[in-house]
Design a protein that fits this description.
The complex is a heterodimer of chains A (523) and B (356). Chain A is mainly alpha-helical and 523 residues long. Chain A is built from 21 helices and seven strands. Chain A has helices at 2-13, 21-29, 32-44, 51-58, 100-114, 120-133, 139-148, 154-168, 172-182, 188-200, 204-253, 261-282, 290-312, 321-343, 370-392, 394-404, 406-411, 416-438, 450-463, 468-489, 491-508; strands at 62-65, 68-73, 76-79, 85-86, 94-95, 359-363, 366-369. Chain A is elongated. Chain B folds into two domains: 1-39, no CATH class; 53-286, no CATH class. Chain B is globular, with a radius of gyration of 21 Å. Classes of the chains: A mainly alpha (523), B mainly alpha (356). Chains A and B meet through helix 14, helix 19 and helix 21 of A and helix 5, helix 6, helix 11 and helix 13 of B.
């Protein structure tokens, strides 16, 4: 892409190449400060004729013959001042060396020229990079770009950048006007600029005006931070919800304490990894869509493992919750070690498909990553399908029937043992889906599930066992509370506070655990 | 005496005491190193360590086997006792740390200038010994009071004690807590003025552990054969009925929970000088669940079974992790599954059946 732009620029600039001889010589032969000044001088007028020379300098393909500066391109050269072709090249050429400081300035200048590029993406990128690091010397170029710009995304960015430059240079009236305009922006960079002016400017009037604008910007940034916090909370809540939904079935509805729940999440994540690997090897052209295939695969793999466990172990322990706890803990240890044996003890790399990377710039200081947005949506989708499955299908009816009154359900012909297996498979399959989602957010390793087991149990218990709606509220409340506390006290303390809070909550409201009352409590 | 054990029981216990207090010291200190009968430091440390685990297993058996409460916070009480002892051992290092400072190395590293408030008085052994008992007791008292009063029982109790342990582990991982963060306490030099690595001191610690183990066993046996113990068993089997008979079940449960926590704390305090390190990973929820499996393997509700279970599992662990490190988790996992499915009364149940 960059080379294409470069060629385009070359094509339109080459015939009109004519630069100030003095400036070019300073750029090539001057001392450090002179060369910097020369770069700025080339940018200042916004003359695109300077682009090929700057590009060439950046790419170390400028040489000199006595006082002549040549842009070398293969075995011919172009005179940087006049634009004449020089061929063949003279013998006694010297390299024009560019040091790091100068290179930085040249690259900045080139970014400024990108503002004039015909490609929208390039302009947007340039406008963004200039928004945080523009030299007031580039004002003319920015204004020129602003006059040409029509794109609704880029124009406001440039306006803010231009105002930021005007604020620092020029006469008092235009500075004041610029400060007033900046009061409408909401970028952390402008806040720093305004804060500097509000503190240190010698002119009292400008200080007062800058303070006023600063407060406005600060207020807007605060809102951005709050919105970002809210999003992070909802996002964490959706992750917790995914992790806990499966448990809401196996534990909440069936009453099975499944300590291997976390490992079933982990298996879902590894299933996603395996699908990704398969696509990379055999279907590289469809790689971006591997995630769609991974969703059913992770569900089925985890559900099968779960159903196998139910048939082999858990079935024999119904009604003995403490024994179930120990046996499923043993299962979790075995599963962890099995995954270590198969995939190795190290974390594996699960690559996000293209549509999951990047994010939406919601506000100037808030970026919402696509992966998080998709996962919030995915959690909602899983929740909805689970709700429909439990309330609208025959299987759901049977599951609810067996939960409410096993003997009666059995009497009217519900195959309770099979329903147990299927319901357990459903719960563990949803754990697999959670694993598929989590693989897109962080590391996938054998210990992945261990981190979620305590959290998932807390969500289900907090929400009230046997209530799906409670699980949803609990996940969101815990997610938000965790992120909110995190912003005050750091991640670890936040987690501890939330855990301690739940411990106390359970003790204050133990009846919230069980919807059952009276004699049924003892049953 | 006869209430506690029959003749055969006392003979077995006497043999056990003979092995610990006579055979071990003689074989490791008096028999020359070339002799085939010599016991190396490795074995003294290993058996000492496992005896600490056995004490914890007895505490677990008291509350789970006899009262039906599966606490997953016992790893926490154990670690708290260990940390209390560790504080004293850190003070005993004096200026021999890497930085030759009055403060422990990790505090120098964090650029602290003085001991934080909770290290007050920890240079005295008696004060730390008090902490070993008081801290787990207080935590168990407060936590148990709220939990039992609001009738949190069964699996819910297990899960919230696990959450408590998890929260404590996260807290102890923080440097700001003043307990050495990730690394915890290590590099101990002395205990009660004695150099901690010499065979003589090690044997003293070993003997002290053995003494505490036997004393704990007898105490627990005395409790479960008393009226108090009978009420505990009744609570396990039909709590509501016991409550309707006029017993204050909350107090009974609270008393045994606190006692159990204290025993764990003492075991932790004996454990730390022998293994030479204490860090927050001792509090990981996995450790607490492992304690339960020791008891389950040995057989719930049989105190000797708890010792046996702790011994079998931990000797198995040290054997497996050396011979086939890959397979230890498989073995442990299968043990959990098989014992719960096929051996509900543990090894003791097997022994009793074959004796009959």
């Amino acid at each position: 892409m960059r080379t294409l732009i470069f060629l385009l620029l070359m094509a339109c600039a080459a015939p009109a190449l004519a630069l100030d001889k003095d400036v070019v010589e300073k750029l090539a032969f001057g001392d450090g400060d002179e060369r910097s000044a020369a770069v700025l001088a080339l940018v200042k007028d916004g003359d695109e004729a300077a682009v090929p020379l700057l590009k060439a300098l950046d790419g170390d393909s400028v040489q000199s013959v006595e006082k002549r500066v040549l842009i070398i391109n293969g075995d011919e050269g172009i005179d940087a001042v006049t634009g004449e072709k020089v061929s063949p090249l003279p013998e006694n050429r010297d390299d024009v060396v560019v040091n790091n400081r100068l290179r930085g300035e040249i690259e900045n200048a080139l970014a400024a020229f990108n503002l004039l590029s015909p490609d929208r993406g390039v302009r947007l990128g340039a406008a963004k990079s200039l928004a945080t690091g523009a030299d007031p010397g580039m004002l003319k170029l920015v204004q020129k770009a602003l006059a040409r710009e029509t794109d609704p995304d880029i124009k406001p960015l440039l306006e803010v950048t231009a105002a930021g430059m005007e604020m620092r240079a020029g006469d008092k009236e235009s500075r004041l006007a610029a400060i007033r305009r900046l009061g409408e922006s909401a970028s952390p960079h402008i806040r720093t600029l305004l804060a500097a002016a509000a503190e240190g400017d010698p002119d009292a009037e400008i200080r007062a005006e800058a303070q006023k604008s600063l407060r406005a910007v600060q207020g807007r940034l605060d809102w951005g931070e709050r919105a970002g916090l809210l999003f992070a909370g909802v996002s964490l809540g959706s992750v917790l919800l995914l992790a806990a939904l499966g448990l809401a079935i196996t534990y909440g509805l069936m009453g099975v304490i499944n300590m291997a729940h976390g490992e079933l999440i982990m298996i879902g994540a590894y299933a996603t990894y395996a699908v990704q690997k398969f696509f990379r090897l055999h279907l590289p052209e469809a790689f971006n869509w591997y995630l769609l295939a991974a969703i059913p695969v992770s569900f089925v793999v985890s559900a099968l493992v779960g159903m196998l466990l139910e048939r082999a172990v858990i079935r024999w322990l119904y009604g003995r919750p403490l024994e179930t706890l120990l046996a499923t803990w043993g299962i979790s240890l075995t599963l962890i070690q099995a995954v270590r044996t198969i995939f190795g003890a190290q974390n594996v790399q699960v690559e996000n498909p293209a549509f999951m990377s990047g994010g939406v710039q919601a506000l100037s200081n808030v970026v919402l990553p696509w992966s998080r947005i998709y996962i919030i949506g995915f959690a909602a989708l899983v929740l909805l399908s689970m709700y429909l499955l439990l309330t609208k299908t025959r299987l759901g009816l049977f599951v609810r029937g067996v939960t409410q009154n096993r003997e009666m359900a059995s009497c009217v012909g519900v195959p309770t043992a099979r329903i147990d297996t299927l319901a357990f498979g459903l719960g563990t399959g949803i754990a697999g889906l959670a694993g598929c989602a989590l693989s897109q957010l962080g590391n996938v390793g054998p210990d992945l599930g261990q981190g979620y087991i305590v959290d998932s149990f807390m969500v289900v218990v907090f929400g009230g066992v046997g209530q799906l709606a409670g699980t949803v509220y609990a996940a969101l409340v815990l997610g938000l509370a965790n992120k909110l506390l995190e912003s005050f006290s750091g991640a670890v303390i936040a987690k501890i506070v939330v855990l301690v809070f739940i411990i106390f909550f359970i003790q204050r409201r133990p009846q919230g655990l069980f919807a059952l009352r009276g004699r049924a409590v003892e049953a | 005496m006869s209430r506690l054990y029959g003749t055969r029981g006392w003979i077995l216990l006497g043999a056990f005491a003979f092995i610990l207090f006579v055979a071990f010291p003689v074989l490791s200190l008096k028999v020359s190193e070339q002799s085939a009968l010599h016991l190396s430091q490795y074995w003294v440390t290993l058996v000492g360590k496992i005896m600490c685990y056995a004490i914890v297993a007895i505490a677990m058996d008291l509350i789970w086997g006899y009262c039906g409460i599966l606490s997953l916070g016992h790893g926490l009480f154990f670690a708290l006792g260990g940390y209390a002892m560790g504080m004293y051992l850190m003070r005993q290092i004096g200026r021999e740390g890497q930085y030759q400072s009055d403060l422990p190395d990790f505090m120098v590293f964090l650029n602290w200038k003085e001991y934080p408030w909770h290290w007050w008085n920890t240079e005295h052994f008696w004060y730390c010994a008090l902490l070993v008992v008081a801290v787990p007791a207080l935590l168990a008292l407060v936590f148990g009071f709220f939990a039992f009063r609001s009738r949190v029982k069964g699996v819910y109790f297990s899960i919230i004690t696990q959450a408590l342990t998890f929260a404590a582990m996260l807290a102890f991982f923080r440097n700001a807590m003043g307990f050495g963060g990730n690394n915890g306490f290590t590099d101990f030099k002395r205990i009660l003025g004695l150099p901690i690595t010499t065979p003589g001191t090690r044997m003293l610690l070993f003997a002290a552990t053995g003494f505490v183990l036997i004393a704990t066993l007898l105490l627990a046996r005395w409790i479960v054969t008393s009226k108090f113990g009978r009420v505990l068993t009744a609570i396990r089997d039909a709590e509501t009925r016991v409550a309707f008979c006029g017993y204050d079940t909350v107090s009974y449960k609270l008393a045994i929970f606190v006692l159990s926590a204290v025993i764990c704390g003492v075991a932790g305090a004996l454990y730390v000088p022998q293994v030479g390190i204490i860090n927050p990973s001792e509090m990981s929820p996995a450790n607490s669940i492992e304690i339960a499996i020791w008891v389950a393997v040995g057989g719930r509700g049989t105190l000797a079974g708890a010792i046996l279970g702790a011994g079998i599992v931990n000797f198995g662990k040290s054997f497996f992790t050396q011979a086939f490190p890959e397979y230890w988790l498989y073995a442990l996992g299968l043990l959990f599954i098989l014992v719960t499915l096929f051996l509900p009364r543990g090894v003791m149940g097997l022994l009793q059946r074959s004796a009959r």
